[in-house]
Amino acid sequence: MLSLKAVRHRYGAREVLKVERFEAASGEHWLVLGPSGCGKTTLLHIVSGLLRASEGEVRVGNQLLAALSGAALDRWRGRTLGIVPQKLHLVPSLTVLQNLLLAQSLAGMPADAARARSACPGATRRAKRRPSRATLAWRSPARGSGPRGGEPAAGADCRRADVEPR
């Protein structure tokens, strides 16, 4: 499912990541742990195609990431991976549902509100049960303020689930 071979990444002359060989099978769970600055985020960015390795081979499933152009890599990421980044990158003037529809569109998928809602069925039930205090803002943003409180994190998790990551 995930294979790294002779992967290195440099910023200028400084090598920040070196992985000789790593393989993880589908269904395995791994923890990336280390001190600040050791390359954890760089590794995750390389594996997700957000950053290209300076050297080596990165394969996710049957896809060799180096074989994809920028736009194709973006489409692959949007359709294949479920990423919840530290910075959520939600559009604040949109509702959570509108953010999910935007993510579908950017991934080259048809906008499908039913699919987006099904990514977070519990949130939809809570929204129907307590519309004034819904956990996720399926409603319109209040005066353009967009999702509030814990809604952005929950919305990002729904966005991750919406693409049915492998």
Please describe the topology of this protein:
Elements: E1 2-11, E2 14-24, H1 40-47, E3 55-60, E4 63-64, H2 70-80, H3 96-106, H4 113-118, H5 121-129, H6 151-162
Antiparallel strand pairs: 1-2, 1-3, 3-4
Helix pairs in contact: 3-6
What is the CA–CA distance across the termini? 9 Å
Strand content: 15-25%
Question: How many domains would you count in the coordinates?
Answer: 2
Shape: elongated
Widest β-sheet, arrangement of strands: 2-1-3-4
Number of strands: 4
Order of helices and strands: EEHEEHHHHH
Quaternary assembly: single chain
- Radius of gyration, in Å, reads 18 Å
The helix-and-strand class reads alpha+beta
State the major sheet: 4 strands, antiparallel
DSSP helix count? Answer: 6
> Could you name the ranges where pLDDT drops below 50 across 5 or more consecutive residues?
124-140
Helix content: 25-40%
Give the integer mean of the pLDDT values.
77
